[in-house]
Design a protein that fits this description.
Blueprint: H1 4-8, H2 26-41, H3 45-49, H4 53-64, H5 74-90, H6 95-99, H7 101-113, H8 123-147, H9 153-171, H10 180-201, H11 206-217, H12 223-245, E1 254-258, E2 261-265, H13 269-280, H14 286-289, H15 293-312, H16 327-344, H17 350-366, H18 374-388, H19 393-400, H20 417-428, H21 441-455, H22 458-462, H23 486-500, H24 504-520, H25 525-542, H26 546-560, H27 569-587, H28 595-612, H29 625-640, H30 665-688, H31 706-722, H32 741-755, E3 769-774, E4 779-785, E5 793-800, E6 803-810, H33 852-859, H34 864-883, H35 910-919, E7 930-932, H36 937-947, E8 953-962, H37 969-972, H38 980-989, E9 991-994, E10 1013-1018, E11 1022-1028, H39 1042-1049, E12 1055-1060, H40 1069-1072, E13 1080-1086, E14 1092-1097, E15 1113-1114, H41 1116-1136, H42 1144-1159, H43 1165-1171, E16 1243-1244, E17 1284-1288, E18 1294-1298, E19 1338-1339
Parallel strand pairs: 8-11, 8-12, 12-13
Antiparallel strand pairs: 1-2, 3-4, 3-7, 4-5, 5-6, 6-17, 9-10, 10-11, 13-14, 14-15, 16-19, 17-18
Amino acid sequence: MFVDRCAKLGLLEYNPESNILRDFSLHVRKVLVKEVVTFLLEGNNAQKTLLSPAHVTWAMETVGQGFALPIEEEDSIVKVITLYRVWCLDGKRPAPFEENPQHFTRELLGHFSLLFSPRESAREMVDKHANLCSRVLDIYLQFGRQAGDSLNVETWETFLKLLLGVCDNILRADLDKSQETLQKKLCPQLLKVLFELWLLSRTKNPDLWAALFQRVVGWTQHMSLVLTWKVTAVALTKRVFAILYGPSEGTDTVIMKIDESAQNLVLEDTYVLYAWHKMLNIIGNPNVTVNHPAIFLAFMNGVEMLVNLYVKLGHTNKLPQLLAPNGNTILHIFGEWMFDAVHKDRSGFDEGTALAMKILCNLITSKNKTNWETTYIARFYSCLNQSLAKDGRVLLAAITSSTSIFNHELPGLRTLVPSFASAIHRVISRKIKNVDNVMPAEHVRRSSLIILSTILCLPNHFGSLEFKLRHTDKSSSFDIKRYSDLKQVFITTIIEGIGTETFPPNIETLLHLLFTWMCEDIKNTSELAKQILPVIVRKIHTEWTTEVNRTALRTLSHISFIYSKFEKGYEQANFILLALCKLIENHMPHVITDRLKEELVCIAFECISDWLMLGGEVQWVLNYKETRKELLKTIVLGLTGSMPIRRAASITDDDSKSSSASASSSSKDVRDKKDEKDKKKRLADKKAAPVEKRSSDYTPPPPHPERIREASQSTLAVLLNDTGNFPTACGAHSVSSMITEENLINENLEQALAIDGLEIPATEGKQFMRYFITDDRVIICVIDRPYEERGPGVTIVVRDRTGKYAWDTHLSFVPISDPPITPNYDSRLYNTPISTGPYHSQAQPIDPESLMDIYSFLDNFDTKEAIRTVKAQVETEQRYLESKQYKLADAVAISPPVPANPYVGDCKVQQSRILLSHFGYLSLQNRGRLYPCVMNASFYNDLRRLDDINERECTPISVVLIRKGQATDEEYLGNIGGSVDYQEFVSSLGWGIDIRRHNGFKGSLEGKRAGHVAPYWASYSTEIIFQVSTLIPNTDSHPDHSHKRRILFGSLNYVVVAWVEDIDNFQPASIWSKSKTNSVIIAVHPLPCGLYLIRLFSKSEISSIGPLVDGIVLSKSILGTMVRETALFVDRKERTSQDVYMTQKQIRQQVIEDVFSKFKRETTLEQFYSALFTPLNEDQVGPVGRQGSDSPRKKVKRSALPPPSTPTPPIPVGQAPQAPHGGSSSSSSSSSSIMVPPSPGGSLSKSGSRGAGFGTVRPSQATPPTAESESPSSRAKGGWLTMGSRSSREDGSATKIGVHHRRGGDEPAPSSPSPGRSPAGAAPPPPDPSKKKKKKTDDA
């Protein structure tokens, strides 16, 4: 006896000798079943009574009818189930049962199946029926697990046929609706029992498997079927992996996890492989067999789980036996189901279709090393192209699953770029409706932006190349036929995205992509800038959050670097500067309580500085009067916390034309009277104003944030010091003068010996110098230069928080173009003849006849004696006058004064005193502003410490080359050289510097093992040194490359740039394990098409990193720039996030404060003035004879340098920026590599670091400019107009920027000597050739 469904399906045939009681009345059957089963359950009646096979057969024929009774006879049915359970599982069976166990077992299992026949009963009876059936299924399952090994093939096959009949009887689609409740309750358990017992049977009967396939197709309307299939397929797949690829890749048994319970099935390996294929395809193609969307989705979930198992195979361990299945193998197994799902695109099946598209995309991108079969790749492209043209789930799945698809160089994939571009535009512009019903819309837009970042560089890379596959999206408004047609799509997408996006991470990504596109399509940047910059500014002011505004301001700073490419870029710069000023004014009231707004204001000031410094030779801000006013007002607001109050009679703006120097005194009197009147009025108003009394609860205004004050002060310094002055004439590596006081003193001593033959002791060189410090913390050193070619002068060395600067000055009295003044005067006063004798004149002689009366008178008197006396006197005087030539040889004309000699006294700071007096520092009104310094050894040590502090933020960035197959640092640190592609990348990071001669920031590149060359980059505010592992030589003394490890990972490096040839197998942990910080790794992977994939690796969130986006693809033209900007951004972000962070200027300010507090000398007024005329005491020392510091900014010794004949090796690095005003940097370059030239004339200066040290000689000076280059403003008479700043070139020569420059030792002397050049004040004689000054440079 068995359920009728088995016979109807042709699985089993009826035994005509059985089921005798079928035709008996129900009453009789009830009584028989009840009485017999009750008797057999009592004690051992069954064993005692049923003594022959016939007895057992009769009893089972009778008791078995109980399974066919109505459910209302529940008690009898339960007793029958109990009896059979004892016989099946407990072993307490009649003796004849053991004689033929297989036969009786088949009969018993068949009787059980009768319970699953449908009954017409009340609803409440259905639950009882289901519970009874569930008990039987439990017995089935337990019996199969316990006695399965004892069953023969016939019994197992009968058992399986019974299970098929039972399942089909309950699960078939045409079951009466009255049985749906029973169906729902039993379906999961039925399928679980069927699948598990089927595997336990180990059957390979093809007829049975065919029957199973045929029946299962009719059960696909049940979700439990797909769920059970998924569990079974996954369990078998894991076991197959363990068999084929080793225990670590799978499981030791077939583990079926259903209903939170797990069952381990121990099956033979051969059967597992056989059953895996059968079970995997048991449902067939779901696109044909499954007609319910939810069940189809569940099936695809199972496929996804299985595909993921295949994809992950071999990722954790190397497979010892077989190769992992490639993408083609996986598509052989599952591809048909997924391809058909997408192509058929059945209505209502969107979720399953979308999942199929997702599985395909993930598989293609995960198995990117596969050499795909043409059929598969073509079908995939067809599916993807079809999906991108749709709306809804399928499109979203295609977008969200394809974020990295363009990173793998699939053959022919770029034919889909137009479809992707159009779909991305529709997503970003929000033309796709009801996205939120599927997934968060912002996630879809983010995926679209990631894909956009991978195709952004294609238009310029491929130019006007045509697409072979025509764009099929009819809803698109773009006609994309060529790569160049994509430009308008990208621009529109970015602009619309920035205008409509509200999700902060997406806005930041859009801003990063904007800058990337502006760099990429630099020729058309102007038009884009005009459209997008006003949008960004408006969003910053009105809509975006503080976090987004921070990124927006950083982006504006980045954009300033490409300002020169804008058409009329100064208009954009002016617009942005005004907008930033307005932003600061709006946020200033809230900075006390809002830390984020405080940070935003600081970033805004930095952004202003960047836009101020973008002009190069043309300072654009000088052309905008109102902008300057607004900028200065904003700076004052940042410095003080309040807006400046403009007086009614304000000073005229500096743009207005200044009045003539010869203005009449009457206009000055009018101004003086007006100022006096205004002063009296203010005093009167002040007296009349009522005095406000402060209440007891008065609270003073909160303190102004120091960070904002520091930021605004830095911006003011940029405006005053750096605008139009960077790069300096000595190159971008230095913003401070590298001249030292000792250089100048030694030069004084050498000039004294060479020109005047004076040998001044080195210890007396201090008498030519004085140090002062101002009340606003500026250290001033003045050094008299009495032996200059142009005459006495003064060199001023100024140190403040921004750096160190040296100026040469001479007191000028005539225009520079006039010949020098000589004390040669013409004594002729009139143009008339001059007599040559004492009494010769133009008058006529007297006639003697007219004197007769006088003679007569004299004759009448005795006058002879008197006459003799008179004659004798006259003759004596005449002889005397004749002997003295009548005194005509005496010079009686008034002679002009000769120039004064200022150095006749012991005090040698005469010119310095005059200069300070002219500057007003020595006036009584400024008495409290200037303080002399104590010049002792500690003072010079603190100066050296100050000079050793960099003026700009310094960033070391490590660069490593990781070739294919290299996994440990010992492997990749040993790399030297690299491909041309890699070396060109290194050259694009910065320009080349010779480490031995470099005076800028060197990072950890110190010592002989650091190599000779490195890429270096600098701006007005930042220095970057790239510590490239391939440029650091390998050494035999460090075979493990520990010296490279120390340089690259020993310092606090927050960024590591890795050129990775095999990105799929790259392990960031190999770098993190050696680094002292959680460095952000920027991995650059070259693609076969000539583009570059960028991957960002960080232990923390990387969404805030920019301008690079993880997964972006770049062209070579912007690769170096984007990597450098991102590395700089990350380094700055990490450093400023530290609990204790100080800028370089703040550190310098702190040292200056120490100098002010320790070495400021308090003096009385008498002592202050007296010191200006008094030599230094013994306790005051100078810098001469002191050794230079071992600062990292100090040059190496000459002995470490090669001779001039040794060529410097080529440096594969880029070109340095050019100095403004026609100045040039010290190194030249080509597109791929440059040669660092030796110093001019084959010499190298012994100059120390940039002011770091006092034991070196000043570098030789540059040739002064010609008269044509002189500034017209310097041609006035009388004043300290011959000023020039002193700096130094990288090649060792010094440069003085200005009108008058002191010539170097190799410079030709002027055509005529200058007056007052020697201490005596007169023109000195020609110098003795034997005492000619030696050259101050040494052969390199």
